[in-house]
Specification:
- About 30% of the residues lie in helices and about 25% in strands.
- It is an alpha+beta fold and about 90 residues long.
- The strands form two sheets. Strands 1-4-5 form a three-stranded antiparallel beta sheet.
- Strand 4 (about 70-75) and strand 5 (about 80) form a beta hairpin.
- The longest helix has 18 residues, at about 1-20.
- The radius of gyration is 20 Å and the shape is flat.
- The model has no long low-confidence stretch (mean pLDDT about 80).
């Protein structure tokens, strides 16, 4: 029993290490849908999360910053949807 648990723990550890080494290309080869978000200078937008009072449902965001960028959705190495180009915040409004 201990040997089986040790083997299982070793296997799970190995699998978690392998999972962290995934690349975009390896995920796309698996045929999984992928959404890629690319921003200028790799700047990530920021937001503040807003949570409802106790007993209520739903979440939202506020104070969102706009960052120029684009995104695309692909599956099986075929782009299904993409934005046209990197746009400045003023162009997107």
């Amino acid at each position: 029993m201990k040997k089986t648990l040790l083997l299982l723990a070793t296997l799970l550890s190995w699998m978690s290490v392998r999972a962290t080494n995934l690349t975009l290309d390896s995920v796309m080869r698996l045929g999984l849908p992928v959404v890629v978000i690319q921003t200028q200078n790799n700047v990530m937008p920021t937001v503040d999360a807003v949570h409802p009072p106790a007993g209520c449902i739903g979440n939202s965001i506020t104070n969102a910053t706009k960052v120029p960028g684009r995104f695309w959705f692909s599956q099986v190495q075929e782009i299904r949807f993409t934005t046209v180009a990197i746009m400045s915040p003023r162009q997107s409004e």
